Amino acid sequence: MAGSPSPLTTHVLNTAMGVPCSNMALSLYQQDPSTNAWSLITTGTTNADGRCPGLITKQIFTSGVYRMRFETAQYWESIGETCFYPHVEIAFTINDPGQKFHVPLLLSRFSYSTYRGS
């Protein structure tokens, strides 16, 4: 999607080892405000830098509640480790879809953290 960067980005970092989390599966959902049901928008896999470019286009990025689900157990198993959290879900509200949003995940086998970046 050259020339049209995603207004929503993520970066997954393995803070225990000081490296990006590559090849981690993730899913992006949006909540229907009338039914509270979640609709899958897209799935992806992090690249060698722990990023997943092209998550959503500006055209379909609207105000609302979103959720990103990261398949952490699969990632840890792929590098020969176990973990406490089999997946991590981060829900967040977008009020102004004209802004750029960055939702990183800082991850170890027994903890995780996130914040709103730009």
From TrEMBL:
<keyword id="KW-0378">Hydrolase</keyword>
<dbReference type="InterPro" id="IPR000895">
    <property type="entry name" value="Transthyretin/HIU_hydrolase"/>
</dbReference>
<dbReference type="InterPro" id="IPR014306">
    <property type="entry name" value="Hydroxyisourate_hydrolase"/>
</dbReference>
<feature type="binding site">
    <location>
        <position position="51"/>
    </location>
    <ligand>
        <name>substrate</name>
    </ligand>
</feature>
<dbReference type="InterPro" id="IPR023416">
    <property type="entry name" value="Transthyretin/HIU_hydrolase_d"/>
</dbReference>
<comment type="subunit">
    <text>Homotetramer.</text>
</comment>
<comment type="pathway">
    <text>Purine metabolism; urate degradation; (S)-allantoin from urate: step 2/3.</text>
</comment>
<keyword id="KW-0576">Peroxisome</keyword>
<dbReference type="Pfam" id="PF00576">
    <property type="entry name" value="Transthyretin"/>
</dbReference>
<feature type="binding site">
    <location>
        <position position="115"/>
    </location>
    <ligand>
        <name>substrate</name>
    </ligand>
</feature>
<comment type="similarity">
    <text>Belongs to the transthyretin family. 5-hydroxyisourate hydrolase subfamily.</text>
</comment>
<keyword id="KW-0659">Purine metabolism</keyword>
<dbReference type="InterPro" id="IPR036817">
    <property type="entry name" value="Transthyretin/HIU_hydrolase_sf"/>
</dbReference>
<feature type="domain" description="Transthyretin/hydroxyisourate hydrolase">
    <location>
        <begin position="3"/>
        <end position="117"/>
    </location>
</feature>
<dbReference type="GO" id="GO:0005777">
    <property type="term" value="C:peroxisome"/>
</dbReference>
<dbReference type="GO" id="GO:0006144">
    <property type="term" value="P:purine nucleobase metabolic process"/>
</dbReference>
<dbReference type="GO" id="GO:0033971">
    <property type="term" value="F:hydroxyisourate hydrolase activity"/>
</dbReference>
<feature type="binding site">
    <location>
        <position position="11"/>
    </location>
    <ligand>
        <name>substrate</name>
    </ligand>
</feature>
<comment type="function">
    <text>Catalyzes the hydrolysis of 5-hydroxyisourate (HIU) to 2-oxo-4-hydroxy-4-carboxy-5-ureidoimidazoline (OHCU).</text>
</comment>
<protein>
    <recommendedName>
        <fullName>5-hydroxyisourate hydrolase</fullName>
        <ecNumber>3.5.2.17</ecNumber>
    </recommendedName>
</protein>
